[in-house]
Structure formats: structure tokens, C-alpha cells
Amino acid sequence: MREASLKSYLPFAKGTFQSLLSYRLNFFLYVIGELTTVFATYYIWLAVYKNSGSQTLHGFSLQDMFTYIFMCQVALNFVSNDASYEVANEVREGSIAMNLIRPIRYRMVILFRILGEVIYNVCFVGTPILLIVCGVRYFSHGIAPDLLGIAGFFLSAVMGFLIYFYFNFIFGLSAFYISNVWGMNMLKGAIINFLSGSMIPIQFFPGWAQDILAFMPFNSLIYTPVMIFLGKYQGMEAVKALLIQVFWVLLLGISGVLLWQKAIKKLTIQGG
Amino acid sequence: MKRFIRLYTKLSAQYLKTLLEYRTDFIIGLIAFFFIQGFGIAFLFMVFQNIPNLNGWSFYEVLFIYGFANLPRALDHLVTDNLWILAGRIIVRGEFDKYLLRPMNPLFYLFADRFQPDAFGELIVGILLVVTALTKLSLHIGLIEIVGFIIAVLAGAVIYTSIKLIFASLAFWMKRSQSILFVAYQMANFTKYPMTIYNKVINIFLTFIIPFAFTAFIPASWLLGRESFAYGVLATCGVAAVFFAGGYALWNAGLKSYESAGN
Amino acid sequence: MIEVRDIIKDFSSVKRQPGLMGSIKTLFSREYTHKRAVDHMSFSVDRGEVVGYIGPNGAGKSTTIKMMTGILVPTSGNIQVDGITPYEQRQKNAMNIGVVFGQRTQLWWDLPVRETFSILKEIYNVNDADYKKRMSFLGEVLELEPFLATPVRSLSLGQRMRADLAAAMIHNPKVLYLDEPTIGLDVVVKENVRQAIKQLNAEFNTTVILTTHDLSDIEELCKRIIIIDNGRKVYDGTLAEIKSRFGTMRRLELKVKNPYAFKAEPLRAKYGLSGDELSCEVVDGQLNIELDRNRIGIQEVINEVLAKTELVDMSLFETKIEEIIKKIYRNEVNME
Ligand SMILES: Nc1ncnc2c1ncn2[C@@H]1O[C@H](COP(=O)(O)OP(=O)(O)OP(=O)(O)O)[C@@H](O)[C@H]1O
Ligand SMILES: [Mg+2]
């Protein structure tokens, strides 16, 4: 089979991007709806710092915390997609077999479809929030934007995207073996949302929980990029965090490929 | 009334049979729901590790409000989930026709046609939280409190239903209104915490405009001894009555404007 | 039974504008485009009549039915069904009517057919004795027995349509509205459904309003038809009358030695006929002649053919009702 070039996958990204574009009004309303939770959290932290009697909690000042909860929303743009659902659906309906007769890689098709969604989210939700966060930090607190931190954030968030993508790919393929991906998908969403640190920074977790989470990929999704943005990971620490992300990309990526090959065998032998 | 109950049970029983075909998904979904709630509580718990109280509200008081918020939400969720689908596709695809062709009140039929068992998860978590918080708080709970509590929960559920009804009815003119309904519904997120932490604008908005404050914070405050009975229960009932009347009027106007769908 | 007086139905839809600003503008703007689907329609139907309501796609048939059933409120005009205004007293009206939309089932999608009937029994408050009686009648006429235990979603189209018909009849309605009840059915099932409708009408004296694109439905079931085009009524009368008024066209199909020997022009000139009244064409070596029997005798035409060439075989056809209706739809005939 001739290897398709990256260019042949671009239409998939463009397709998702464009179809999202036609829903934009509804899309923004949903974004506003989702942000209510963040605003409620904002006021909770405001009250918490007022009541705690200290300037910092677990190394986070109030400013850090505000930045943290809003930057989590930006990072979430990289890791919110339906890849697992999409793959699972194709597995269940058997249409996944169609991909074997095309001269392109299924994994890449899904990746690019998701990419369209992510780019859309980052353009129209993530970047505006990022600009507002930087603006507020600069104009009312005199904190100049840290370009290296922003660059590190994007690099790390892209890693998070890849980890999440492979995680979902594997999850979707598991539909070959288990039949209740819908329920599992909800469960997965809930767990990732919490353990990735998007509700509350990992530092606030009890010590034992932090120890366990250190061995899991969830940190790498949201927490790591935001910590880099905040400048809490600097120098060697940031490099180490990025290397951990690379490790997860490789581990999950290779597992995904292996699982896919097994799935192909299953498909060609049993016919789906 | 008897006919309503009989019809409701009959239709719900049918829907349950449908659901049972997908029961594993349903159970896993329920488990997921417990996780979501558990994480919400874990969040509160971790927050309280750093402070003695939140603007004067103790951990268990906050937990009580949080748990209370679940109850009206769950009751509404159980019965009126079809409003989401109405706003999303029933009207735009012309599927609403069938609700106008039976000798039943169309709103009743819409509600009876589907129920959301996820709500049992909300209900169970809510009751557990409320009971746990109450035992820790050693409040005075007499007959008035129990009756008032039940009335407030029911009135709160009616407020939820009314707000959903208002925004879902917009679909009669807009064809789809799910995203607007979503924004409105999400406003309820503010009311499961002590609302003294918010600024005036948010408080006024959630009390007078989209009155979710009456579904949790206000009646819960009465039980915690911080609000009068008149405000905590009677006002809640009043708001429920006014908003339901408004929502139902809008719904009826919507029925007249319903355009079905061409093929 | 049914009185439709001068009803109009306008659909309005918001004008959409392109672009992001456009979609925000659309939210607030009041610019509508109007589409008149039914235009000053009036008719009345007596108890026990079976009326065919026909017209081309988009003529306004379904829209009229939706107003008669109470789903839509007319923009103006008035409807009475058994003394009730359907869109004002929906629930009362619903007790009196049964509705089948061929395009969309009213059954409970995930439930076995039998369950659907037991829900409907509750909804329409049918007592046990009546329920039993009607179930056995409908079961027999519509042959429901084989699939009573099957979930609706796994029924074939024909089975689903029969179940829908039965579901619409379980409370013995005074009026039955059937919007394309034979759509997508094969000939055998179609015949089945037609027979069932006939029997139901005969047994319960049910008034039936039927829309269809298959005119053989009409020929078999309806004495009376109403033709609607572009929202307006263009014909209301018996099928027989249409046939006798417009059914004078005949078609001769001739196998001859030399099909090109016959020409229409000389005959047209001789009798002063238009191209519509006499025409001919050669298809697959066969000579086809269309003629208006009122304007020229069949014998004259045949004589002319025989004079030119040798006849091998011949058949004569009446113009099909489809052809006439097609002409009416295309405004090719004068209805006055
Ligand atoms: N809900 C609606 N909104 C806007 N326009 C509509 C709607 N329903 C019907 N129309 C329009 O009204 C006209 C009449 O439609 P209707 O469905 O009554 O036609 P019909 O005679 O039933 O056609 P068909 O034979 O295709 O079923 C059409 O132009 C259609 O596009
Ligand atoms: Mg139609």
C-alpha cells in the first residue's frame, strides 16, 4: 500500500472545522453554559482566600488560582473531543472495515478529524480566553506576559492532545471487546475531568493521591501545561514534565498501534 | 387525576421496558454519575482543608446546601427530561405532531413519554448528603421543618420545570432552542453553594430573573436557621406558581405557532 | 361530518443571512419569508364518504390534513369536524379521529406491537369488551397476528403500515385521515391495505380522507376526489365524471410492415385537428397513435393505416387516469 502524504489528510481536518463553523452560534452558547461552572469556582476561591488568612495556599496565590482555573479551560480545548465515541461507533456498526480498503491510515484520519475540532476550539475559545487572562494579569496586576511560558504551554498542551488522542483511540477500539462504550465514555469523562487537575490543582489533593497520580497520564493532560504557563515549572522541572509527557505519548501511541493491528486481524479473520 | 396517574404509570412502564434493553449502559451511566457527584464533594472537602469556614458557612452547612440542590433538580430531571429533546429535535423535525393527536394534554403526554432514571442517582446522593449534614449539624428538626422541606423541594422542582419550559417553548418559534436552554439551565450551578460569596448582580439575577436561588440556597438557608419561613418556603412557592403560570402560557402560545415540518 | 371553510395556511420562516454577523442578525431580525401552502380551500365531506385528496408534490395535501387533525392552526378560515374545531379543542377532537401518516409511524418504536395497542386502549379509554371485539376484527382484516410480538422497529414497511392502520382504528374513530398510506408498499401489500380500508369503511361507516400518489388507490377506494394544486382546489367531484369528461383519448399500438408509411398530418388537415388530438410516433418499430375519440373516429384512423401498409397486430388502450390527472396537474386541460 502506498503511503499517503500528510496532505491527503488535511481535508478531514478542514471538514470538521467547517461543519463546526456553521454551528457557531449554538457553539458559543454551549461554551457560555460550560463557563458558568468556572465562574462559580472563581467566586469560591475568592471567598476561600479571604477566609484562609494567608496569602498563598499550597504555593498558589489568589492570582495564580484565577489564572489556573481559566487556563485550565484553555488547556481543555486541546483534550475535549469525541474520538473514542467515533471509533467505538464505527466498530459497532462495522463501518471500520471500510478503512482497510482505503490507501490511508485510519488512525491518521481520526487524528485529523479531531484536529479540525481542536483547532476550531483553540482559535475561537482558547485564544480569546488566553488573551483575556494575559490582559487581566498585565493591566490589573502588572504581570508581564511570559512568552516562554506561553510557548511552553502550547507545546505541552499539544503533548496533552496527543496523549488524550491515543488514550481515546485505544478506548474506542476496546469496543471490539466490550459493548458498553457509551456508559464507559461518561465515566471516563468524569474521571479525567477530576484527575487531570481541571477542577482543583493537584497540590490540593491529599499526599497519597498525589503519589498515585504521579504514575498516571492524567496530570499530563491539563495540569502540566497550566503549571508551565504559570511558571511554576521552570528550567529542568519543565523539561522533566515535558519528558514525562513524551513518555506517555510513546507508550500510548505504541499500544494504540499494536491494538489496531490486532483489531485488523480480528476484522479480516472474522469479518468484523 | 386518577386517569392521569394511570396513564402516567402505563407510559412510564413502557419507557422503562425500552430502557431495560440498554441496562448495562444505564448502570455504568449511573456509576459515572456517582463519580461526578463524588468529585464535586471531594472538591468541597479539599477546599475546606484550607479554611475554617466559607464566609461564615461551615463545611456541613455547605454540604447541606449542595445536597439540597440535588433534590429539586432530580425530581424535575426525572419527569421533564423530554423538554431537552423538544428543544433539540422534536419540534424541528415535526415529531411534535404525535403529541397533538392524542386525547391528552400535550404537555402531560410529553412528560409521560419519557423519564430519566439518571435522576435516581441525583436523588440518592442528595438525600445522603442532606441526612449526613443534618446529623452533623444538630439542627432542630420538627414537624414544620419536615413539611416545609418537602414543600420547598417540590416547589423547587416546579421552578426548574418552569424555567426549562420557558426556554424549551422558544423552540416553537426558533425551531431549536437547546443551546439557550442549556445556558439558562447551567445558571443553576451557582445556587448549590452559599450565594453570599457572589456579587450583587449574580444574586439579583438568580433571585428575580432566572430564580434558581429558590431551588436550593434560599430554602436550604431557612432550614439552616438563616432565613425566615416566609422567604424560605412561602416565597419559593410563590415564585414556583408565578413562573409555572408564565411558562405554561408561553407553551400554549407556542402550540398555536407550531408549524410541524414538511417532508 | 367535515366542513372546511375558506382556509389559508401561510408558513413563515426567518430569512437567514450568511456570515457570523448574519446569524446574529437573524436572531433579532423580524424578516420573514412567507409561503402559502393552502390557499382559500373549502369543501365538505359527509359521514361515511371515502374522499381521495390528491395533487402533485408540495400541493398542500399534508398541510390541509394537519389542519383538519388539529396539529396546525389555519392562518385564516374555519374547520369543523363533527361540530368541533380541531385546533381549538384538540383533545375532544382526538377522540373522534384516527390518523396515519405513511411517512412516519405513530407506534412506540421500541415496543412490541401488542404493547402499543394496550397503551392506546388506556389513552382512548376503550372498555375491555370493545377492545376485544375490535382487536379481533382488525387482527383478521389486517392480518396482524404474525407480528404482534415483534418490536415496531423490526417490522417490515408493510407490516408497520398495517399496524399503524389498526392503531388508528382501535378507538373506532368517526373520521380516518390517511396521508399516503400505501407509500413504499409492494403491489400485494398495497392491495391488502386497500381491502382493509374498504372493509373498515363498510363495517363502521367511517369517513375516510385519503391522500396518495398512486391513482389506483383512488380508483379502487374513492368515489369522490378533490384535486389540489398550489394550495388551491382545482377539482371536486366524482372520478367517473373526470373520466367521461377527459377520458376520450385513445391509444392505438400497431405492428405494421412499414411503420413510417403512416403520417398524421394529412388526417389532421382533413379533420382540422390539433397536435394534441391526433399524434403518432414510432417506438421500436411499432407505430403508436394517440387520438381523441370525440374528434376523429378510430375507424378512420385504421382505414388510413390500412391504405398505407399491411397490418400485423393491433391493440387499443383507454387513456389511463394517470395521464388525465397528469394533464390536470400540468394545467394542460381546462377544468371549467
Ligand atoms: N412546516 C413547514 N414549514 C414551512 N413550509 C412547509 C412546512 N410544511 C409544508 N411546507 C410547504 O408547504 C407546501 C405544501 O406542503 P405539503 O407537505 O402540504 O405538500 P403535500 O401536498 O403533502 O406534498 P407531498 O405529496 O410531497 O407530500 C410545500 O411547499 C412545503 O414546502
Ligand atoms: Mg404530504
Mean pLDDT of chain B: 92
Structural class of chain A: mainly alpha
Measured by DSSP, the beta-strand proportion of chain B falls in under 5%
Element pattern of chain B in H and E: HHHHHHHHHHHH
- Number of E-type strands of chain A: 2
- Number of distinct beta strands of chain B: 0
Overall tally of structural domains of chain B: 1
Task: List the total number of helices of chain B.
Answer: 12
Description:
The complex is a heterotrimer of chains A (272), B (263) and C (336). Chain A is mainly alpha-helical. Chain A is 72% helix and 1% strand. The model of chain A has no long low-confidence stretch (mean pLDDT 87). Chain B has one domain. In chain B, helix 11 runs antiparallel to helix 12. Chain C is an alpha/beta fold. Chain C has two domains: 206 residues, P-loop containing nucleotide triphosphate hydrolases (Rossmann fold, 3-Layer(aba) Sandwich); 71 residues, Alpha-Beta Plaits. Chain C is built from twelve helices and 13 strands. In chain C, the strands form three sheets. In chain C, strands 5-6-7-3-8-9 form a six-stranded mixed beta sheet, with helices on both faces. The model of chain C has no long low-confidence stretch (mean pLDDT 87). Chains in contact: A-B, A-C, B-C. The structure holds adenosine-5'-triphosphate and magnesium ion. Magnesium ion (MG) binds next to helix 2 of chain C.
Summarize the structure.
The complex is a heterotrimer of chains A (272), B (263) and C (336). Chain B is built from 12 helices and no strands.
Key descriptive features of the protein:
heterotrimer; A: 272 residues; mainly alpha; two-stranded antiparallel sheet; 2 strands; 1% strand; B: mainly alpha; 12 helices; globular; binds adenosine-5'-triphosphate; binds magnesium ion
Secondary-structure topology with pairs:
The complex is a heterotrimer of chains A (272), B (263) and C (336).
Chain A: H1 10-21, H2 24-52, E1 56-57, E2 60-61, H3 62-76, H4 83-93, H5 106-141, H6 147-173, H7 181-195, H8 207-213, H9 223-230, H10 236-270
Antiparallel strand pairs in A: 1-2
Helix pairs in contact in A: 1-5, 2-3, 3-5, 3-9, 4-6, 6-9, 6-10
Chain B: H1 2-20, H2 23-48, H3 59-80, H4 82-90, H5 106-112, H6 118-137, H7 143-169, H8 171-174, H9 178-186, H10 200-209, H11 217-223, H12 229-257
Chain C: E1 2-14, H1 19-28, E2 32-45, E3 50-54, H2 61-69, E4 76-81, H3 90-96, E5 97-101, H4 113-123, H5 128-142, H6 157-169, E6 175-179, H7 187-204, E7 207-211, H8 215-221, E8 224-229, E9 232-238, H9 239-246, E10 249-256, H10 265-271, E11 278-283, E12 286-292, H11 298-308, E13 311-318, H12 321-329
The structure holds adenosine-5'-triphosphate and magnesium ion.
